[in-house]
């Protein structure tokens, strides 16, 4: 169907009217969607900056009439939060690097059709996507390994993610085999091929999986709540949750009784500030990652 | 034991003997070496704790621990299946999970394709970044916003409907429309985040193919259909296979935060049941049994989808 | 009455302190390690000052587990299953106790030991509602827990009217009878109280229904668009599940009439709160409804409603509560009035929160070791005495030791009541001081008689009479069968309530089917269990 066209000259095509209309509509529609997604975030930003004593928080403003940094002072008020920033960055960076290394290696091997018992190994991996022992045996394992209160308790249990490995393996199988074959003729071994040739071509998928892993490390708190005992080693999300809970009188235990909080604090602004403090650093990572999602980045590097 | 069963599989297909297999491992020793650390982590952190699943077949005594609790066979499963709310919860979960999958999955692909068609790189990045934002906002915050948005008297949607001469509808007050709200909210929250993987796949499409198509005079739509989609088909297939198990995923967090008493008969999902059993009543055996049942179903669905995909386009997880 | 009780209290305290002073002279020979869980608002460090003080005084090493409140049970259960059972177990949700007992995780103990080593607390528990709370901590005659009681819950939920609307429709006093309430609610709905020329106002939404149902002697569920707990009340001399009584049915009829006449906001289904602080009624604040029963009285206190004491000992106008703050920010001119439960065919009342807030339980290892157990009981008793001390030189010395000079870091709010406050700057700068009074070693919700509701805020609530006419749930924790059936029953009940009011189901024709539905979900068994428990413990 495509090849029946007579004109085979490459042309700097002028867009048809239809295409122009499509482009404008597409831009408008995606713009609207983006705005709808920005809105709640923007709303939280406005609330976090509002002067809780004088601005009605349930009213929706584009920008609070009276700006106050009080809630940020509260959210960032304890010295523990600064330790926790370091601690969280450590777990996110180390956790992501380790997960990517372990995952990428395994994905590469499982992608090789000739590797013995490949199906069995893949099944072994995928099985863990659906079946896990639950929190109690995991706690016992961490305890027996002596990792309680260590950053490794936050990094190692999640280092192998079947989901991510399957996705990476899938990406790797789409790379042309010819690359590898020529390298093998040059006498390179598998390890060399993986890191010299395959790795540079895998940046889009590594960026994607890396982003997922980093964000999940950044947002994680449950593991730290269970495994970390030392106050100075609490992770960011755990501290922020506590800041919110301390100001939040809505701790309604199941019996229905109320616990009163500190009336000096306004929970809503602190909650909003908390979301900002927790989210903005990770959002700053995007621009560095987005360059890997540009069209043709891979083929470009293939030739380069 | 694990390794020997692996040999059984391989014996049927390739190497005829144990020695043959061992030889193959030696031949690909660099690959084996590459995979060893990952396998060690897999065994230690995923397979050792897996004995925890046995409490679905035991009367779990917290004091005795998992290993020393008494076995009770399938009693726990029988109990769970006979619970008054179980079948309704299963049905609700299935409906919600299937609807979420059917709506969100294609939408995420569509968003990636549309983003890919944007010509201005900066605009594209901006839209993309904004589209991730809802992923970072918890359901408890969003549920209040949706309540305001959908209020038939004060919400902006109602104002729009009135402006168009329509009667505003109380979407959150009726079970049927409440499902729509849940699915739509889930779509909106996850679409940007979910589209990342497809954008990554799109980044890998060979640009030369587009140039060739352009020479052939293919229209933009044709290029998407005949080049882009086939190029990311493997990714779509893999994602679909893995997500097919998610029809038993009920988004407990969302449902729990958005529900109200008028619609509870459709929001009573398996997650709520597990939460009540495990956390509120310390019935760990029962909640593990529900989880295990759920994962078995998910696993079977994934196996089935994978098998189907293999038959149709010779592509799958394995 | 209150005077008399406070004298009694003072005597107890003196006795308590004296007995403690005697104990202090005999130093504790053996040092014990104790792992402790309690309500921790902020994580404690090992070197928290007050913790050290306790350790020194009682020759113990306290390992305080910083378990976050929001996920308390998950973490606690993981620790227990992982072989790290704490010695002192805060049972955050009292309903969990029977599970822990049947799992053998907590130890039973002799009440005599408590009386011996914890005399002050034991005496308070004896006096509170004639010792009724003791029995809540017992299973089949064995004592497993020391109950903790939230004294602040002695006040029922506040009844709030929009004063501007009352003026606009020409009503100058808050309703005292159901008829007066009905008249006012109809006026709010029909006479355009906000004067915007549109018919966009209602009398009540979900929470305000508590006042209407209270006139029929029952507490409704489904308030706040959420399920409300199963409510058991003493009706006609027997323990009844409130939502299947004739009174409840009659209340539903009135509610249905109000709904049909446009007096109830049709959006009562999704509740009055559309996000934000839990006690806020957005419907009330945004001028959709004119009456609500939500939060606690202190959330609704308007600026200047009474005088508070500031750090210089001067009287200053009270600042707005957490809900009023929002109300004033939306409309600086807004005025509200606190009302009373209205008298109806079956009396009057509105919901009061449970007094029983949590239990303190102990590991079997602790209760089996009498000496260690006694040490723990002494610590807890001492903490409570210190907390309750009205004023004493000892308390002054303690506070100075813990927080530094009076006036600089902390100050007495009402010295004669023994209430004090820590300056915000100090508490911010020293998060590691440790358990202060609010987040004490077990003081949060320690058994406290209502008479300990001291301070100007409590005086205000007493002046409103909010300590009377609260509708209290007879069962403040769940019994085994109740734990099993309650969620299912509550859901059915709350959905039905909405359907009865909106007319989806007929109160006349579908009532029997509704009862049958609940029975099938286990209602009969649950009610029988509650009756057995209640009559075994109350004569």
CATH topology descriptor of the largest domain in chain B: MetI-like fold
CATH architecture of the largest domain in chain B: Orthogonal Bundle
How many beta-strand runs of chain A?
Answer: 0
Number of strands of chain B: 0
Given as residue ranges, the uncertain stretches of chain A (5+ residues, pLDDT < 50) are 1-10, 248-264, 299-304
pLDDT under 50 segments of chain B (min length 5)? 1-12
How does this structure look, described?
The complex is a heterotrimer of chains A (304), B (318) and C (539). Chain A is mainly α and 304 residues long. Chain A has helices spanning 17-49, 70-75, 80-110, 118-130, 135-144, 152-155, 162-173, 178-185, 190-201, 203-219, 222-227, 236-247, 267-283, 286-290, 297-303. Chain A contains 15 helices and no strands. The longest helix of chain A has 33 residues, at 17-49. With 318 residues, chain B is mainly alpha-helical. Helix content of chain B is 72%, strand content 0%. Chain C has 539 residues and is an alpha+beta fold. Chain C folds into two domains: 2-151 and 357-390 and 443-454, Periplasmic binding protein-like II (D-Maltodextrin-Binding Protein, domain 2); 159-351 and 477-537, D-Maltodextrin-Binding Protein, domain 2, CATH 3.40.190.10. In chain C, strands 3-15-6 form a three-stranded antiparallel sheet. A three-stranded antiparallel sheet of chain C has the order 10-7-13.
Itemize the secondary structure elements and their pairings.
The complex is a heterotrimer of chains A (304), B (318) and C (539).
Chain A: H1 17-49, H2 70-75, H3 80-110, H4 118-130, H5 135-144, H6 152-155, H7 162-173, H8 178-185, H9 190-201, H10 203-219, H11 222-227, H12 236-247, H13 267-283, H14 286-290, H15 297-303
Helix pairs in contact in A: 1-13, 3-7, 3-10, 8-9, 12-13
Chain B: H1 2-13, H2 18-27, H3 29-47, H4 65-68, H5 75-82, H6 86-116, H7 121-132, H8 139-149, H9 156-163, H10 175-203, H11 207-215, H12 220-244, H13 252-258, H14 264-267, H15 270-280, H16 284-313
Helix pairs in contact in B: 2-3, 5-16, 6-10, 6-12, 6-15, 7-10, 8-13, 10-12, 12-16, 15-16
Chain C: H1 2-25, E1 32-36, H2 49-58, E2 60-64, H3 72-81, E3 88-91, H4 97-103, H5 111-117, H6 119-127, H7 132-136, E4 138-139, E5 142-143, E6 146-149, E7 159-162, H8 163-168, H9 178-190, H10 209-214, E8 232-235, E9 238-241, H11 246-260, H12 282-285, E10 291-292, E11 307-309, E12 315-317, H13 324-330, E13 336-339, E14 350-351, E15 356-362, H14 364-368, H15 370-388, H16 393-403, E16 410-414, E17 419-422, H17 424-429, H18 456-464, E18 470-471, H19 480-502, H20 511-520, H21 523-537
Parallel strand pairs in C: 1-2, 14-18
Antiparallel strand pairs in C: 3-15, 4-5, 6-15, 7-10, 7-13, 8-9, 11-12, 16-17
């Amino acid at each position: 169907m495509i090849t029946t066209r007579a004109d085979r000259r490459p042309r700097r095509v002028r867009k048809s009217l239809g295409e122009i209309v499509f482009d404008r509509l597409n831009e408008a529609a995606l713009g609207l969607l983006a705005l709808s997604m920005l809105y709640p975030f923007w709303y939280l930003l406005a609330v976090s900056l509002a002067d809780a004593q004088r601005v009605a928080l349930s009213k929706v403003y584009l920008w609070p009439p009276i700006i106050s940094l009080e809630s940020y002072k509260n959210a960032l008020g304890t010295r523990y939060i600064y330790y926790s920033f370091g601690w969280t960055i450590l777990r996110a960076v180390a956790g992501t690097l380790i997960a990517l290394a372990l995952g990428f290696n395994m994905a590469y091997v499982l992608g090789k059709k000739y590797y013995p018992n490949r199906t069995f190994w893949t099944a072994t991996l995928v099985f863990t996507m659906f079946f896990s022992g639950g929190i109690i045996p995991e706690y016992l394992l961490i305890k027996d390994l002596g990792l309680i209160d260590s950053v490794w308790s936050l990094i190692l249990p999640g280092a192998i993610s079947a989901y991510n490995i399957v996705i990476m393996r899938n990406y790797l199988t789409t790379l042309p085999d010819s690359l590898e074959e020529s390298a093998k003729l040059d006498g390179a071994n598998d390890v060399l091929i993986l890191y010299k040739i395959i790795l540079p071509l895998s940046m889009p998928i590594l960026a994607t999986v890396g982003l997922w892993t980093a964000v999940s490390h950044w947002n994680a708190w449950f593991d730290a709540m269970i495994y970390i005992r030392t106050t100075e080693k609490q992770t960011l999300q755990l501290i922020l949750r506590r800041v919110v809970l301390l100001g939040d009188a809505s701790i309604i235990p199941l019996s229905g009784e109320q616990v009163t909080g500190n009336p000096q604090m306004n929970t809503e602004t602190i909650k909003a500030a908390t979301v900002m403090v927790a989210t903005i650093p990770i959002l700053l990572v995007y621009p560095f990652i987005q360059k890997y999602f540009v069209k043709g980045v891979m083929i470009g590097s293939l030739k380069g | 034991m694990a390794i020997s069963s692996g040999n059984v599989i391989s014996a049927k297909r390739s190497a005829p003997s144990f020695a043959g297999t061992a030889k193959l491992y030696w031949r690909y020793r660099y690959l084996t070496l590459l995979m060893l650390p990952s396998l060690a982590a897999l065994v230690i952190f995923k397979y050792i704790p897996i004995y925890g699943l046995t409490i679905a077949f035991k009367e779990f005594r917290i004091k005795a621990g998992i290993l020393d609790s008494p076995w009770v066979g399938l009693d726990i499963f029988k109990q769970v299946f006979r619970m008054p709310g179980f079948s309704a919860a299963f049905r609700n979960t299935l409906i919600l999970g299937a609807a979420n999958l059917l709506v969100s999955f294609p939408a995420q692909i569509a968003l990636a394709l549309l983003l890919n068609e944007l010509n201005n790189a900066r605009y594209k990045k901006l839209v993309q970044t904004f589209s991730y934002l809802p992923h970072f906002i918890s359901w408890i915050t969003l549920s209040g916003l949706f309540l305001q948005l959908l209020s038939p008297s004060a919400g902006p949607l109602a104002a729009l409907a009135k402006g168009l001469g329509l009667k505003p509808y109380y979407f959150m007050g009726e079970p049927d429309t409440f499902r729509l709200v849940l699915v739509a909210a889930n779509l909106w929250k996850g679409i940007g985040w979910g589209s990342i993987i497809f954008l990554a796949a799109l980044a890998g499409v060979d640009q030369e193919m587009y140039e060739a198509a352009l020479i052939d005079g293919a229209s933009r739509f044709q290029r998407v259909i005949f080049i882009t989609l086939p190029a990311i088909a493997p990714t779509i297939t893999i994602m679909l296979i893995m997500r097919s198990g998610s029809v038993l995923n009920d988004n407990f967090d969302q449902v729990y935060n958005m529900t109200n008493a008028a619609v509870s008969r459709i929001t009573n999902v398996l997650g709520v049941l597990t939460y009540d059993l495990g956390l509120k009543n310390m019935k760990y055996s029962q909640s593990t049994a529900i989880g295990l049942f759920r994962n078995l179903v998910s696993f079977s669905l994934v196996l089935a989808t994978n098998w189907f995909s293999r038959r149709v386009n010779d592509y799958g997880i394995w | 009455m209150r005077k008399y009780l406070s004298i009694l209290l003072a005597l107890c305290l003196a006795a308590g302190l004296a007995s403690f002073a005697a104990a202090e002279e005999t130093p504790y020979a053996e040092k014990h390690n104790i792992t402790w869980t309690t309500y921790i608002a902020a994580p404690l460090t090992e070197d928290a000052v007050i913790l050290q003080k306790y350790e020194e005084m009682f020759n113990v090493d306290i390992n305080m587990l910083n378990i976050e409140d929001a996920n308390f049970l998950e973490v606690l259960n993981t620790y227990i299953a992982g072989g790290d059972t704490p010695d002192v177990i805060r049972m955050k949700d009292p309903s969990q106790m029977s599970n822990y007992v049947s799992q053998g995780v907590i130890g039973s103990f002799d009440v005599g030991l408590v009386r011996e080593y914890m005399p002050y607390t034991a005496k308070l528990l004896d006096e509170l509602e004639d010792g009724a709370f003791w029995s809540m901590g017992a299973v089949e005659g064995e004592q497993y827990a020391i109950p903790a009681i939230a004294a602040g819950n002695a006040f029922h939920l506040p009844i709030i009217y929009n004063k501007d609307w009352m003026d606009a429709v020409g009503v100058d006093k808050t309703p005292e009878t159901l008829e007066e309430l009905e008249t006012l609610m109809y006026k709010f709905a029909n006479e355009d109280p906000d004067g915007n020329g549109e018919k966009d106002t209602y009398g009540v939404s979900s929470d305000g229904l508590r006042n209407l149902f209270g006139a029929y002697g029952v507490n409704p569920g489904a308030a706040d668009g959420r399920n409300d707990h199963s409510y058991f009340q003493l009706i006609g001399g027997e323990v009844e599940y409130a939502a299947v009584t004739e009174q409840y049915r009659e209340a539903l009829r009135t509610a249905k009439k109000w709904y049909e006449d446009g007096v109830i906001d049709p959006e009562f289904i999704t509740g009055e709160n559309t996000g934000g602080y839990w006690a806020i009624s957005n419907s009330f604040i945004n001028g959709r409804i004119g009456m609500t029963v939500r939060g606690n009285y202190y959330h609704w206190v308007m600026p200047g409603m009474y005088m508070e004491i500031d750090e210089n000992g001067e009287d200053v106008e009270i600042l707005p509560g957490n809900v009023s703050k929002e109300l004033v920010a939306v409309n600086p001119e807004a005025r509200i009035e606190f009302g009373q439960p209205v008298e109806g065919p079956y009396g009057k009342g509105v919901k009061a929160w449970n007094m029983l807030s949590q239990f303190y339980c102990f590991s079997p290892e602790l209760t089996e070791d009498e000496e260690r157990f006694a040490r723990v009981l002494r610590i807890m008793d001492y903490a409570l005495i210190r907390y309750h001390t009205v004023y004493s030189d000892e308390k002054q010395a303690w506070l100075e030791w813990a927080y530094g000079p009076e006036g600089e870091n902390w100050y007495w709010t009402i010295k004669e009541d023994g209430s004090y406050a820590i300056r915000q700057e100090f508490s911010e700068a020293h998060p590691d001081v440790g358990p202060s009074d609010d987040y004490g070693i077990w003081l949060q919700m320690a058994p406290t008689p209502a008479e300990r509701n001291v301070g100007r805020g409590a005086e205000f609530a007493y002046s409103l009479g909010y300590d009377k006419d609260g509708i209290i749930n007879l069962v403040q924790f769940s019994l085994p069968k109740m734990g099993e059936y309650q969620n299912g029953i509550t859901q059915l009940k709350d959905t039905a309530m909405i359907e009865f009011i909106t007319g989806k189901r007929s109160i006349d024709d579908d009532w029997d089917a509704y009862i049958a539905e609940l029975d099938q979900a286990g209602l009969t068994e649950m009610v029988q269990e509650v009756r057995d428990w209640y009559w075994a413990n109350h004569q």
